[in-house]
Amino acid sequence: MHYDNNSLGVKQSATFLCFCPAMHTNIYRFIRPAVALGLCLVAAACNYSSFPDPTLSSRDVELLALAPKSLNRDLDPARARFRLPNPTSEKKAGTVVVDSAARFLYLIEEGGTALRYEISPGQDAHQWSGTATIGRKVEWPTWTPGTTARQMVPGLPGVVPGGPNNPLGARGLYLHDEKGRDTEYRIHGTNEPEMIGQPVSLGCIRMHNIDAIDLYNRVKIGAKVVVL
Questions:
Q1: CATH number of 57-227, picked from 3.40.50.620, 2.40.440.10, 2.30.38.10, 3.30.365.10
Q2: Closest CA to 117 of 29, 205, 27
Q3: β-bridge pairing 224-227 and 96-99
Q4: In a 3-state reduction of DSSP, which class is residue 209?
Q5: Which helix (H) or strand (E) holds 63?
Q6: What is the dihedral of CA 25, 31, 32, 36, to 10 degrees?
Q7: DSSP for residue 175
Q8: To the nearest 10°, the Cα dihedral for 164, 222, 105, 202?
Q9: Could you tell me the pTM of the whole model?
């Protein structure tokens, strides 16, 4: 579960640098408009930069080695973990913004940047929007199946212990409402990494385990979460 951030041929934490010929007046007239537009879009993407995987504990290393493996995640580098200019309307550092339609989660940083992670939001019938706060953080959490999960999958155990095959994966961020009550929604890892990027959950926000660990290390109890 240790992903290679160098799949785009750049060093970790190095900002992508490029030049858009379409913006050069002496060259523009020789470039067909469609090509010029494409080059400008590439230039815009050059504001992205990669950042390294989080440091793992010995327990993380052991359990991640046993967890189901992602299937060729690096084949779609456009959806990899990146630091980029804050694309949201939220400005406060530490705020988490979930863009369910785009299937990305953003952690807002100081200085006008955000960290972007790929996610799986809820199925259409289970998607929701609103605000919450991070009320609790748990490493390798247990899972207590709710009523909906039990109806969909009869025979589920009362409690699934934390570990590599637990649906909550490596980390759980528990979302609370404005009165401090557990909403039963989580931002968490997964035991189905191949499903990340698809709307498949019952309302929780799934992440790749390595990304869930990284977010867990950065976000604070009480942080605001905005789900779009």
A1: 2.40.440.10
A2: 205
A3: parallel
A4: helix
A5: helix 58-66
A6: -70
A7: E
A8: 60
A9: 0.78
What is the full per-residue pLDDT of the chain (228 aa) written as tens digits?
333 333 333 333 332 233 233 333 333 333 344 433 443 344 345 577 888 999 999 999 999 999 998 765 555 778 889 999 999 999 999 999 999 999 999 999 999 999 999 999 999 889 999 999 999 999 999 999 888 888 888 888 999 999 999 999 999 999 999 999 999 999 999 999 999 999 999 999 999 999 999 999 999 999 999 999
Which residues are annotated as catalytic? 188, 204
Contact 106, 114 (CB under 8 A): yes
SS3 for 98-121, per residue? EECCCCEEEEECCCCEEEEEEEEC
Task: Give the torsion through C-alpha atoms of 221, 222, 223, 228, to 10 deg.
Answer: 120
